[in-house]
Structure formats: C-alpha cells, structure tokens
Amino acid sequence: QVQLVESGGGEVQPGGSLRLSCAASTERFAINNMGWYRQAPGKQRELVASLTSGGTTRLADSVKGRFTISREFAKNTATLQMDNLKPEDSAVYYCFASYYYRLPDDNDFWGQGTQVTVSS
User: Fold this and answer.
1) Do 117 and 104 form a contact (C-beta atoms < 8 A)?
2) Torsions phi, psi of 51, nearest 5?
3) What is the share, in percent, of the chain residues with pLDDT greater than 70?
4) Which of 23, 52, 107, 115 has its CA 20 to 30 A from that of 32?
5) Phi-psi region for residue 63, left (φ > 0), alpha (ψ -120 to 50) or beta?
6) What is the four-CA torsion angle of 83, 86, 92, 96, rounded to 10 degrees?
7) 43 and 50 Cβ atoms separated by less than 8 Å
8) Residue 23: count of CB within 10 angstroms of its CB
9) Interval 32-44: pLDDT, tens
10) Under a CB-based contact definition with an 8 Å cutoff, are residues 101 and 36 in contact?
C-alpha cells in the first residue's frame, strides 16, 4: 500500500504562484509515475501534469508554459510549481502515484486533494 501526503495549495490572486508537494511512502516497489489531476465543481477530473521515472512529462495544454512538475525519484516526492495562475485553475488538485508508466486509474494511489483558489 502507498500513502500519499499532500501539501501546498490555498488561495492566490490571478497572476500569482503556488506550489503543491506530494510525498509517497512505499516499502516495496518503485513509484514510476506521479502527478496531479484536478477537478472543478461541475467538471470532470482532468490530468494537470505527470512525470514518470523514465522522464516522460505530460502537461495539460491549458497549463503549458505556466506549470512545472518535478520529482525527487529517490525520495518518491513530486512538486507542482504553478505560476501565472488564472481563475480557471481553481479546483481541487489530487496527487496520484502509480507503479506503472501509464496514466493512473482507480487502482492506483491518490491523495486526499487540496484546494487551489485563484480569485481577486
């Protein structure tokens, strides 16, 4: 079993920055894929960013050029640096971790979610 601990998030004005962090505890297998999804009220959950241990990065088109994902592979941690935030970035952000390189599903591991609000 993998436990995820999320930190960061909060409220910021448009154009501001926030950083999300996620730490995965695992005693058996390596975490190959980590990242974040987000879900806004009335909308489907969408992939924001992911980074595999092989170095493959996925970023939603809406966040390219503004968000950066990084990982410390030895520590099984991930960080999402969010710059130039927009009101449409407001959502609950969920960290995920997976033993596999594919995008996660319900059988993978998920954090409890953290609220990001961008408002003037």
Assistant:
1) no
2) -145, 120
3) 100
4) 115
5) alpha
6) -40
7) no
8) 19
9) 999 999 999 999 9
10) no
Confidence at 53, pLDDT banded by 50, 70, 90: very high
State yes or no: pLDDT of 119 exceeds 80: yes
Asked if residues 84 and 68 have their Cβ atoms less than 8 Å apart, the reply is no
Rounded to an integer, the average pLDDT of 89-101 is 95
Paired tokens of 45: 């959950």
Place of tokens 């154009």: 15
Q: Which two tokens stand for residue 89?
A: 């970035």
Let me know: does 93 contact 48? Beta carbons within 8 Å.
Answer: yes
Q: Report d(CA 40, CA 31) in Å as an integer.
A: 27
Cβ atoms of 81 and 68 within 8 Å: the answer is yes
Angle at 22 between CA 19 and CA 23, to 5 degrees: 145
**Torsion angle, CA of 88/86/83/78, rounded to 10 degrees?**
-20
